[in-house]
Design goal:
With about 400 residues, the chain is of the alpha/beta class. The chain is built from 18 helices and 15 strands. Helices cover about 35% and strands about 15% of the residues. It is elongated.
Length: about 400
Amino acid sequence: MQLADKHEGTTTKAFAGLRVLDFSTTIAGPHCTRMLADMGAEVIKIETDGGETMRTRPPLRNGCSTAFGQLNVGKKSVVLDLKSEDGKEAVRRLAATSDILVENFRPGVMRRLRLDYDSLRQVNPRLIYCSISGYGQTGPSAELPAYAPVIHAASGYDMAHLAYQPGRNRPDYCGIYHADVVTGTYGFGAIASALYQRSVTGAGQHIDVSMLETMLSLTLTELQSSQFAVPPPPRPMFGPTETASGYVMITIASEKTFQALMGVIGRPDWVSDPRFATYAARRANWAELMDGVEIWSRQLSTDACLRVLGAAGVPASAYRSVSEALADPQLAHRQALSEVRDEGGSFQVLNLPFRMSGADTAPAKTVSVLGEHTDALRLEIGLADGTAIPPGKTAATS
């Protein structure tokens, strides 16, 4: 039985019973808290009366953003004015009942609001407080404004990518915000670690996640090469290989793969050829090697190339659009997409990319309307119509 099959019918949520206060906006923080929500945590998204910026980002249907929905499905929405004493008191009371807080304001903002970790741990010593920022919470760059494209440039990531583009000297545009998604994922992992530590110590802690360091973690080889005199490869190690109808990506990741590929292209003699017999030799003569591969691949369609390569155990794929990738039967088998709804209608969101045999990781089915849960949660914490309710009393008895 496949893990996905075992998952069917499972109702357990690994983080069920946890409460999360989510002050984050745009992508990195909301991605982190969406993961927490999918794992069963009650995520309370704190917004201004205008709603956070992603609510206006396309695609829009009837004024509802599916980009916002992808990041925030399953969360409750509470509208608070954090500059007012009433709003701050509401946060303090919510924090007292919460396990986790996530924020991605510029460092110093929550401190000025008196809603920083040191302030809120006074009302809840078990609180796990995760701050996501461009450069970290302290240091000479801490208070610089930062968005993913800025961090891509600042981390060296864009120039490292450029080094693999022969003949290019102008950095590429990058509309895919790796820094946001990966930073949010690191935040999720750190929170899970802090939850385990709290189960042992009983104490919460502050988590400081840096987008700059996140992007540096993606430059593993380049980070090491920058410390030593390593000659750059004459062309990218892995890149598009031309076929009669397009391009394929072929990855030669081991001696076995190399030998199999040489058999496919009809050059078994190259296995022992001094130009290609070792990894170092292949790297030095990479252009010549791949020119030989393309002599073979240009004679076949992309589909034909992939059939032959797959049969030989050589890792390869066509270059697909996102729409083409989403139509892959493998994703249907994995139940990788879920249908959710907002006021604009239904749409699909991507599930978490892992399955658990003992826990349900599927997202909720609806996206909250702005402020949908404000009244209910204010009532729960003893604030009704902006008026504080004395401790020990309820709205019904005060």
